[in-house]
Amino acid sequence: MDIMAFLRSGDPSLADDLRRRLGLGGTLPATHRVPAALLATKNVPLRPGSATVIIPIFNAAEQVERLLDRLPKTLPPHQHVLLVNDGSTDARIDAITARFTNTWAQSKVITLPRNRGFVTAVNTALNAVPPDHHAILLNSDTLPPRAWVPRLLAPFAEAPDIASVTPLSNAAEILSVPGAGVDGAPKEALIDHMDATAAQLCPTRIDLPTGIGFCMAMNYRYLIRIGGFDPVFGRGYGEEVDWCQRAKALGGRNVVATNLVVGHDGSASFGTGERRRRVSRAARIISRRYPSYDRDVRLWQQKDPLAPHRLAVAVAWVAASTDQAIPVFVGHMLGGGAETALEREVTQALSDGAPGVAILRVGGQAAWHLTFQGHQYSITGEIDDTDLMLRLLEPLTKRHVIYSCGVGAADPADLPDTLCKLAAGHRLTLRMHDYFPITPSWNLIGADGRYAGIPPLDTADPAHALCKTTTRKGATHREWRMTWGRVFTEADEVTVFAASGRDLVEAAYPDARGKTVLRPHRLCTLPAPQPRGGAALGVLGGINRAKGGAVLERLANQFARPIVVIGELDGSFRLPPPHHVHGRYSQREIAALVGRYKIGVWLLPSIWPETFSFATHEMLATGLPVAGFNLGAQAEALCAADNGHVLDLDPENTTAIAAQLDALFVGDQAPLI
Concatenated DSSP letters for 458-490? Predict the structure, then answer.
């Protein structure tokens, strides 16, 4: 029995301690670059050489029978197999092994008179292996796929310094897909589906700090020099780590077969008390013999060179784990309300039973930032090639594509076509968090800095066209609308969050009529009402040009009261003292900040018709007067609230704005500035 198997099923506190001592804990880095050749086809002839499969058996009749019934369908002809009955007390084992040996000619059973443990069982079998044979250790609780032996042995023919090879698995700790502890009871169809994807991966030989004994090939060149497992490990735990470290000291490498997935139950054969003693003892021996091992494992996990391969196979795992459509979200990396809404949808999808969701984000260093997220795992990779991204998602034969936002895409002109390919034959929903699908100016503001409604198709305003650069295509406004028009035609639903948004979308795309659905965001928590009487003008949220940065800058020069921005202000704009920018905040801090800065009236200075305004609703919840321009969702919210006030003014008419705002304050609460 190996350490990795124990960690899947042993005492949690002991497992945590062992992970710490052997360096198996820690978190993975956020992103990894996915190589373009990850899924390239390589017809490399396999020259695996001769090998003997060793299967130690101690009771667990159901698992043994499952493995031996499946094995003949997965082995190459004339494959040598050694079964080691390690003193099983279950009488069914003899009948199960006899049936296998009668079926498989190149097989033999070695029976030990009493249970001696994993180390002795394996060493007994190794003594019976021909000296020119590689050895393959295979636990009795595994599910190997078809053609697994040639793929597991292929690295030995490619590089003579490779000492051990371990495959990916659903339960193999650092080699687990989609992650350690996610699934410990594999089904045959699930493993076959995962392995079919892995088999398409380019066979990359990634070095490991140690092989893992649930399924590990051992090179005969190193078996001759090292021998079998060290008997000091008794009945088991730590023996394969020790063997791999000894091979490493001789110049050997321990690698993973990235193009192979072998299923594993990950169950243990010892009782809890015995596990505790043996794991603690093994940890002490490993730490004493190999002082750098803990650090080596930690560094390997931090780098996680397997992340691209894990990501590819995780897609297959998710697809095979459910009959429902898997959500595939398309969003950006700019934060804000759209990201908040996307995170809520991801949480809801997982709560509704999805084993995982795919999240494609634009706006990072690579064209695509792909994350597969589940309840217990998150795997992320950066992908420069759109075709590779589409191929990685091919196993998701049932999917629901949900567009959230594409602002920041590396090549925006190609985004509509990519969405159509991604959603071909699947459900497609467009969430209108902004107006990017209408114009490259996602907030509908023209080059003059003003909102003037939906731009006509033949507009000459450069803000509503996409200029060509050395890294992206260009598009006139008409071309932009035509390409996005195909997406609206294909969409099953276009979600808007305010009635004004529905009007704008349907004005731009008449095909959206009949499929536009109004779904206002749910506001789970809001600030508590606050007493009136403050003298400062409050502004809530991050403020840039579209959010009214220029309005505030002009107002600061002639407004008689202090302005306090609870949030961040774009560096293009300045508010001189005594006006103040607080910086980032959380919603739970809003009420306290109202009192701290003595806010008496709120202003939402945004100059574009927002699709939904969380800030407006948060300000209204305080009970203080809230003012904003007659635009979009913010005006709808203001009109519906008793303390809402719509400024039916030009945003550049600072004098009139200041006068109307001043009239909303209660009496002479404090000295004016």
Answer: T---GGGSB---SSS--B-HHHHHHHHHHHHHH
